[in-house]
Amino acid sequence: MASIDVNQISKGMKLEINGEPYEIVDYQHVKPGKGQAFARIKLKNLKTGNVVEKTYKVGEKLELADFEEREMEYLYNDGTFFYFMDTKTYEQIGVPSENVGDKANFLKENDSVQVQFYKGEPISIKLPKTVVLKVIETEPGFKGDTVNNVLKPATVETGAVVQVPTFINVGEYIKVDTETGKYLERVNK
Hints:
The protein is mostly beta strands and 189 residues long. The chain has one helix at 97-100, and strands at residues 3-5, 14-17, 20-30, 38-45, 51-57, 61-64, 67-77, 81-86, 92-96, 112-118, 121-126, 130-138, 151-156, 161-165, 173-177, 183-187.
């Protein structure tokens, strides 16, 4: 396995720490007046989603994770696994439901996502930054009701509930940020 010096780290890099895959979320190089320089690194566990902060002295070596991301198409889920297909090889793989977690709220059949593999095993998925979803249930909006600050709950086609402005109606399409779950804008389809 390849290793790198603490000075070579960058945001988004995948590391293996204590046999677990982590992604560097943020880091800061610190050079104190006295003592040795060090790096304070914020890491996200790619299996659990937990974020931890670790400190490493300059000169220490970090292990790069045996990590791969492949674009795949979402097919279906059977309650235990979410199934994806590689569009080049037509190979189908299952990602455990607990590893997909809340990301399932924004996952539609035939959507393309990045499936994350650690040591050849599928461990999670990475959604696109935004998705367009159809509103299937919400209270009706009223003509002239365009106040921007007032929000109402709307259920989208995946079953997720998103807070939307009052002028959004059933049957309309909205763009949603997959990281925050927030409404971004109405989309004409």
